Amino acid sequence: xxxxxxxxxxxxxxxxxxxxxxxxxxxxxxxxxxxxxxxxxxxxxxxxxxxxxxxxxxxxxxxxxxxxxxxxxxxxxxxxxxxxxxxxxxxxxxxxxxxxxxxxxxxxxxxxxxxxxxxxxxxxxxxxxxxxxxxxxxxxxxxxxxxxxxxxxxxxxxxxxxxxxxxxxxxxxxxxxxxxxxxxxxxxxxxxxxxxxxxxxxxxxxxxxxxxxxxxxxxxxxxxxxxxxxxxxxxxxxxxxxxxxxxxxxxxxxxxxxxxxxxxxxxxxxxxxxxxxxxxxxxxxxxxxxxxxxxxxxxxxxxxxxxxxxxxxxxxxxxxxxxxxxxxxxxxxxxxxxxxxxxxxxxxxx
Length: 350
Prior knowledge:
- The protein is α/β, with parallel strands linked by helices.
- Helices cover 32% and strands 16% of the residues.
- It is built from twelve helices and twelve strands.
- The chain has an eight-stranded parallel beta sheet with strand order 5-4-3-10-9-8-7-6. It has a two-stranded antiparallel sheet with strand order 1-2. Strands 11-12 form a two-stranded antiparallel sheet.
- Helix 8 (166-175) links the parallel strand 7 (157-160) and strand 8 (182-187).
- The model is unreliable at 1-6 (pLDDT under 50).
């Protein structure tokens, strides 16, 4: 199997990922539940209402992710988390019993349930409850033993490439070779990510170089880069969603609230429709205008049958209906009487 054919057969549950498919939009709930299962359920309802294809959480055991001494990142500190990463993560951890009920809630709402595991046991648990795909966060891009272990599960993978180089992406793809399919996410791991560092042209570049589907993990403000990414061929988008941007959590301020997310989905769907199939042709909506705004040859005075037509006899005028402007008319004899004001057709010429 070639890498290209592999890219053409990526599926997450009922969804096919590919250039001719609907852009797969993931509402990234992440840890925006703030450790509250009820808020997690609320995020599922919000995501389903917006028209997103999937809602994704993050599943982790703090002790399997960070040391007790690991400091929080600058953006996490800015969001009000001055304690260590382990303390922050403990506050954001959902009980293991939550995952099945969240999965079932997604099923009831008709939206695909996904989660990013940050350790092997969490990945195993998610696989056991039937997630259709496993998203791997950018922090694990260089954790190739972890990627290889997850690939053994036989579940399609989504690998985010924030902070990565092309060599690191290539090594990550090699590590996931045993997965049935891998989708790459171009990503800039900043919250929010600056527009001038989005580097969206990496999307078609990675697709060409690696022969897999490539999406955009969007940490930029608004929907501008999602629209551009879609136009550049991104087949999967991921964007944070929150119940309230002012909540105290690491990702809330860089997330979209419900109405904003609805607009995000609407914009992406709209630009997808606008892209079309690339085959240049006259569209149905143009038919009524085309004949009226295009020109053709018309007689500007009566022309008797047998008269050799001169430039003074004719003009190229609207509407269409006669011979096209590119036709050779001057110098040819009239095959019959032609009334002034009528379009010239081939039957008028001898």
